[in-house]
Specification:
By secondary structure, the chain is an alpha+beta fold. 57% of the residues lie in helices and 16% in strands. It folds into two domains: 57 residues, Arc Repressor Mutant, subunit A (Orthogonal Bundle); 33 residues, no CATH class. The chain contains four helices and three strands, in the order βααββαα. The N and C termini lie far apart (42 Å). The mean pLDDT is 90.
């Protein structure tokens, strides 16, 4: 959706490896409730559902891209910090 256009549930799940169907459904519904995503159900058998960013959702894309870029730029430093913290704070 961030790339533009609409997405179907299976496409979203493939784009987010490791997310369960339940968690994806809950997350998309929250985004829909918040007005960031519009859901369209097509009257077909089986039903086809499409998700698309609203204007408000699109207004966040530059922030999300910046956050993703920052995360990629600092991935190694974050991993090192986690290793140091984990070594200093072992689980009981």
């Amino acid at each position: 959706m961030v790339r533009g256009g609409s997405e179907h549930h299976p496409e979203l799940q493939r784009a987010l490896p490791g997310i369960s169907q339940r968690m994806l459904t809950l997350t998309v519904r929250r985004l829909e409730r918040d007005g960031l995503v519009h859901r369209t159900v097509h009257p077909e058998v089986p039903p086809r559902v499409e998700y698309e960013l609203t204007a408000m959702g699109h207004s966040l894309t530059h922030l999300l891209r910046s956050l993703a870029d920052w995360s990629a730029d600092h991935r190694a430093a974050i991993a090192e910090s986690r290793l140091r913290w984990d070594a200093a704070n072992p689980l009981p």
